[in-house]
Amino acid sequence: MARTRSDRGMVTAEAAVVIPTLVLFAAMLMWGLMAACAQIQCVDAARAGARAAARSEAEGSTLAAARAIAPGGARVVVAREGDLVRVRVEAAAPTLGPLSMTLRGEAVALAEETVGR
Known about the structure:
Layout: H1 10-54, H2 59-69, E1 75-81, E2 84-92, E3 102-110
């Protein structure tokens, strides 16, 4: 099959379109993976904080337990609601340009001193 003169440079033009698209797609996949990891960290931090609060540890220890696992810059809130302790962890997702969102994790535990009453 003979090449015609009009086909010349076609591969270059296709590569100029495909390569930036692949780079953007790879960047979006990486952002999604980083956001998923940060979400898991928020949930794990809330669980650790709820366990510490349920054991009636000092609020400083509870916050330290949650912040040790939470993503950097996360906000941790501990609240007592009757026999339950609730820990909420909020953190900003890793940003990629205009994509920004808040990740949240929450855990609730029964306070140990209320067990067996």
